[in-house]
Amino acid sequence: MTDGKDLQKVNEDMRKLLARAAFGRGNFEDLFVVPVFAVVAALVLGALIMLATGVDLPTIGRSFVALAVGSAGSLNAVSETLTAAIPLVLAGLGLGLGFRAGLFNIGAEGQLLLGGTAAVVFTFSFPSLPFPILMLFGLLTGALVGAAYASIAGILKATTGAHEVITTIMLNLISIRLLEYILRQPYIQREGRADPVSKSVPDAGQLPRLLDWLDPNLRLHAGVFLMLLAVAFVWWLLFRSKIGFAFRASGANPDAARYAGMRSGLVIVAAMATAGALAGLAGAAQVQGVLGRASPGFSAQMGFDAIALALLGRSHPVGILFAGILFGGLEAGGRQMQVDAGVSIDLISIIQALIIVFIAAPLLVRAIFPWGFRKITKGGKA
Amino acid sequence: MDVELRGITKRFGPVVANDNVNMMIRGGEVLGLLGENGAGKSTMMNILSGLYSPDEGEILIDGKPVSFDGPGDGIAAGIGMVHQHFMLVPVFTVAENVVLGVEPTGPLGYLDLKKARAQVDAINKQYGLHVPADALIEDLPVGIQQRVEILKVLFREADVLILDEPTAVLTPQEVEEFFAIVNSLKEAGKAIVFITHKLHEILAISDRINVLRQGRITGEGDPKTLDEAKLAEMMVGRPVSFTVSKGAGTRGRVMLEMSDVIMLDVTDERLLDHVSLKVHSGEVVGVAGVQGNGQTELVEAITGLERVASGKIIFDGEDITHASVRDRHRRGMAHIPEDRHRDGMISPFTIAENMVLNSYYEPTYTRGMAIDWSAVQETAAKYCLDFDVRTPSVFLPAGNLSGGNQQKMVVARELERQTKLVVASQPTRGLDVGSIEYIHARLIDARDEGDGVLIVSSELDEIMGLADRILVMFEGRIVAEFDNTDGKADRNAVGLAMAGAHQGAAA
């Protein structure tokens, strides 16, 4: 009888320990309120900068309307926003994963350039392969080449301790020059062109457009599914898989990871390779879905924007998805801004940078918008 | 100088760290302040030294109310704190460290080191500190470094000295010398606040004792009329047993055997110098020694965290000299690491995640390549209940737990598995008596279930209480061995061996 009662008590205690805390106000503030206010603050500051450079108020008003319309105001705008988001999110996922594992990988740009170029070369080399096969193998090639290129930095760190920030920056520089060299090789350069431009991706190698039956100008392509799949995959990898646990543990406390028997060298190389694969995939998706060929600087600095994106999304796959859509929207809207109001597209870069600054300084945002937050007391830890 | 704290209350959000505390500190007297981790001792002393300002109450110096706005105000009023973790520049000399921040300067602001040295020597002489003014800090033993900290406070003309767990880093012999210094400070009319959780020390040195529990003064009195049991009860709120209750162990087969192990550092200095030892099943072997004499490296060699240069390590009959950390763990080696914050846990991870930090890959917790988190969480909840880890939920970050509960979490993770050998390094460092009692009992349980247990501790009391056999390490070697089956090893002899006196005899 007493045994039964004890068991009941134990079960009760277990149940309490296993009860999840409700989604707290603090989480809500961190994940939603801070980013929203950061965007607002950045836009306001952006307006002030426009004022300071002599833009008059009606133009500023027009440019913000254009930003909104150009990013979300029409089907075309949404299509452009998502199209721009695809490579950013893919590369950002890789970087976020690296950050979680304690690796500050700056090399997405180079991995993306080489991955994209490899995808182009593969697809025009096997033009006889049928549609989905050529497309998929193209993507795979991009991912593999990106992974291999990133692994160089990973292996250097694991074996010699060379810091990945230095090695990936250097690998970026190498990739830019390497790309120019590759693009001038007779096998790769487009016939009859003097400038370094590659041959085109054959139709069977392209990511199909999704909405061209509505309007041939809509550029949204099947890469959007790839992006969503990658978000789900990275989430699973980080938070559900064995290797992901080792990634996160090594990133949060390398000493404890070593104590727990995790092999730091393996973690470093695996995390770098995965990050490189995602960056390579970003490059492949961009050439197979939008550009159709490789040319110098086809990455348009996406590899660097993706760093900001990963930080903005707090290295969480879902956060990175939203941050990528925000950046995609700013890019698409920025083009509209330039057309409608004649405001320089550089302003968009400033606003993007300001958003990052505000997100990185949550205390500043809390100070500017005190009514949006619960009062926090200093040293609240028990 | 007398300092009175009157009705001090300090809150951090909903947490009341100090609740209407009254305390009197008198010149020429040692006030012992005793309390568990998180009882509010540090908050109290931070208020006294000006780092925090109290929400309610006041501080009176010689009867006059004062208010401190920052840490500078405390020292300006003559209240100096000697922190547990030294704040010294290792490559500076003693004199340079002492005058740092208040350097005596000549014309055009040049540094008058000669004057500094003279001032340091004067203080040295006055209180019998015997610190060489020109020695580099990094060349000095820990006990002398601590005196440099005291010198610093005296140089700033403090009349009240707050000593935060000063004996934690000292050998028994150094503790006695330290007490002599405290007494000479007292005779010079200084007021001393001595913070500790070691009961016998507080009884030995204090003139008056205040006990703090959950932010309140729960006891005060005269050390002559108090004993350890009474103090512990005031501190914990229930009677506490000190003597580890253990029967005689049944010594079985050899679980761990190290023979002639040498470990080198990068400059080929010997960190471990021909170390040979055996740990049997059903036996607790205690490794005593002053910190930094190779104990850390010994544990790293056994657990596989560092490679050894030569020698052999046999675990339950199998050669594991070159086995990985994970391999050793899998064979049944449990490791309670010396620094739980650095090695033993990942603070931002949940308690559930921390409970499987080194076993997450095992089939019990996995489905294919994925971790079965619900299995992990259930196990974690069970471990929490079994080992009395007090938390409202296993989903909370481990960093939110108190020190004692964090350590219980680590111990639970290591001991709940099927183990053959338990390597416990400083298993109760910084814990309060309640948690110490609990963890000691669990280590003895492990022994009684047939594990070999190796305990490394710089607390001689802990070794004396737990170990069946005591090994003493000095400068990377095992210099002495004592039988302690009936708890009757000669405490003084062990202490002397720790200080290196056995060096010649055992080599």
Characterise the protein shown here:
The complex is a heterodimer of chains A (382) and B (507). Chain A has 15 helices and no strands. Chain A is mostly helical and 382 residues long. Chain A has a domain at 87-314. With 507 residues, chain B is an alpha/beta fold. Chain B has 3 domains: 3-236, Rossmann fold (3-Layer(aba) Sandwich); 252-332 and 421-507, P-loop containing nucleotide triphosphate hydrolases (Rossmann fold), CATH 3.40.50.300; 340-417, no CATH class. Chain B has helices at residues 41-48, 71-76, 94-99, 113-127, 142-155, 172-187, 199-205, 228-236, 295-303, 325-330, 340-344, 351-355, 373-386, 403-415, 433-448, 460-466, 491-498, 503-506; strands at residues 3-12, 15-25, 29-35, 56-61, 64-66, 79-82, 160-164, 191-196, 208-213, 216-221, 254-264, 270-280, 283-288, 310-315, 318-319, 333-336, 366-367, 370-371, 421-425, 452-456, 469-474, 477-483. The relative contact order of chain B is 0.10. Chain A binds chain B through residues 10, 13-14, 16-21, 236, 240-243, 245, 248-249, 252-253, 255-263, 377-382, and chain B through 12-13, 15, 38, 305, 324-327, 329, 335, 337, 342-349, 353, 357-358, 360-361, 366, 369-371, 373, 377-378, 380-382, 384-385, 391-396, 400.
Poorly predicted sequence stretches spanning 5 or more consecutive residues of chain A: 376-382
Percent helix among the residues of chain A? over 70%
- Biggest interface: chains and residue counts? A-B, 34 and 44 residues
* Helix content estimate of chain B: 25-40%
Supply Rg of chain A. 24 Å
Number-wise, the strands of chain A total 0
**CATH H level, superfamily name of the largest domain in chain B:** P-loop containing nucleotide triphosphate hydrolases
CATH topology of the largest domain in chain B: the name is Rossmann fold
- End-to-end separation of chain B in angstroms reads 52 Å
- Basic shape of chain A: globular
Q: Shape of chain B from CA axes?
A: globular
Strand arrangement across the biggest beta sheet of chain B: 6-7-8-3-9-10
Per DSSP, the total helix count of chain A is: 15
Ends apart, CA distance between termini of chain A = 40 Å
- Low-confidence stretches of chain B at least 5 residues in length (pLDDT < 50)? 503-507
Averaged pLDDT of chain A: 90
